[in-house]
Design a protein that fits this description.
With 236 residues, the chain is an alpha/beta fold. A five-stranded mixed beta sheet has the order 2-1-3-5-4. Helix 2 crosses helix 3. The longest helix is centred in the C-terminal third of the chain and has 17 residues. The radius of gyration is 18 Å and the shape is globular.
Length: 236
């Protein structure tokens, strides 16, 4: 995993510097959360505030190990700052029974982006280079659930899950409709030769125009409750 993170951090294919999400996930992470793209201003602004408060996050012994201390600052501080009301992480936490932040802290959840750079095109180029490796890494370990928002859900379905016999999904609404039909299989689907439960969802902001085609349908509300149930009954 450290090698994958390193490749992401030094990538210079886009006009911006990649933004890594700092979580405590280990190879035992059971859940992968994939959102679309980082907000550069939000991330950098919060990290700068955290560095001013670094003594809160590193004990006296750790302060001599700069790299370890820096990682701890980024991990703990980002989780705290992401709790801002109405931010995408705050909305995700609300959807997931308020267990998202706790899952990040204990290393049960690995959170990543479809595209690593702010303002980069959501065309799948970045995902083929990095996201595929991240998913494959955890699929070989203890991954059980993949929850993908917006275009990340469309990408995972079309480029990683879809078999040759299936037509490509047109949009995230199409993907969700297909997965609702997979209820009989407990939403299980094969990703890198491993059966996992896959839940594509609309962008947490709720602004996705394609969502209007399905948002008021009872099936989608029931489908979201299945996601909530994972975090209420089966997470720990």
């Amino acid at each position: 995993m450290q090698e994958i993170k390193k490749l992401i951090s030094v990538c210079n294919d886009c006009c911006c510097k990649p933004v890594l999400l700092f979580t405590n996930a280990t190879k035992k992470a059971k859940i992968m959360i994939i959102t679309e793209q980082p907000n550069a201003h939000f991330m950098l602004e919060d990290l700068n505030k955290c560095y001013k408060e670094w003594e809160k996050y590193c004990n006296r012994k750790e302060r001599n190990d700069y790299e370890k201390c820096e990682e701890k600052i980024k991990s703990n501080c980002c989780i705290r700052r992401w709790e801002k009301k109405n931010s995408s992480p705050w909305r995700i936490n609300k959807l997931l029974n308020k267990r998202f932040f706790n899952g990040l802290e204990v290393g049960l959840i690995y959170w990543t982006h479809f595209v690593k750079c702010p303002r980069a095109k959501l065309d799948g180029y970045c995902a083929k280079k990095h996201l595929n490796k991240e998913i494959e890494y955890f699929a070989e370990k203890e991954l059980k659930y993949v929850i993908a928002f917006g275009k990340s859900g469309l990408y995972v379905y079309n480029e990683i899950i879809k078999t040759q016999e299936q037509e490509k999904a047109k949009n995230i609404t199409d993907v969700i409709n297909r997965m609702i039909k997979e209820k009989k299989n407990d939403y299980k689907i094969k990703i890198f030769n491993k059966k996992v439960i896959f839940f594509p969802l609309f962008h947490p902001s709720g602004r996705n125009p394609s969502a209007n085609k399905i948002k008021n349908i009872d099936e989608y509300d029931k489908y979201k409750k299945e996601v909530e149930k994972i975090f209420k009954e089966r997470l720990y």
